[in-house]
Amino acid sequence: MVTLSFDNGPEPEVTPHVLDMLAKHSIKASFFVMGRKVVTREGRALAMRARDEGHWVGNHTYSHTHPLGELDRATALREFDQAEESLGWLEQRPRLFRPYGRAGKLGRHLLHPAVVERLVAGRYSAVLWNSVPGDWRDPEGWVATALEQIAAKDWSLVVLHDQPSGAMEHLDGFLMALKQAGEEIVQEFPKDCVPLREGRVAGPMDLWTSARLD
Length: 214
Ligand SMILES: [Zn+2]
Known about the structure:
With 214 residues, the protein is of the alpha/beta class. The protein has one domain (2-205): TIM Barrel. It has seven helices and eight strands. It has helices at 15-24, 35-38, 41-52, 73-86, 113-121, 142-151, 171-180; strands at 2-7, 30-33, 56-59, 96-97, 125-126, 156-161, 196-197, 200-201. The strands form three sheets. The protein has a four-stranded parallel beta sheet. α4 runs parallel beside α5. The longest helix is centred in the middle third of the chain and has 14 residues, at 73-86. It starts with a strand and ends in a 13-residue tail after the last strand. The site of zinc ion has 5 residues, from loops.
């Protein structure tokens, strides 16, 4: 099984194409958006289009400059809250949050304890990942990498990026290859990628949360 997610958008030059390809293949996915890209009129319209077409939309921080676990409490909360404000129109439940990992790395740098409190209080689901084919750094080769990673797992949650790297020109071919490989593509997330589900701790949060006290 495969779940697809698109991070760091929306981008007017790329997101419409991604949405068109997902519609062509009747696939529902998730878009983890940057708050600073959703506050523009164009960005908000694209995120709304994704929502209207049945995709899930989640908070992926406001500025996406530092993993939250590397920030102090006030700055980490601001990154989260400002992105939520940019998504004030989104009535989706549960609300979704995906931390910024820096090149797809998992670890204690992902979350600040104050943000975890927010997520619990707001009954958020925190959505991690288990497949990072590196589309942004390998716009030509990522499809082969993704297919290899997917073949090696029962259920992959793949991180792609609706960013102007050129990688998404190969999305159509990738989706055709997934179907040819007999992969079932689902919108739901694999359990082991969701350590916090609707505000309930479902996995070891200390693996993903810094020990910062400030
Ligand atoms: Zn990101």
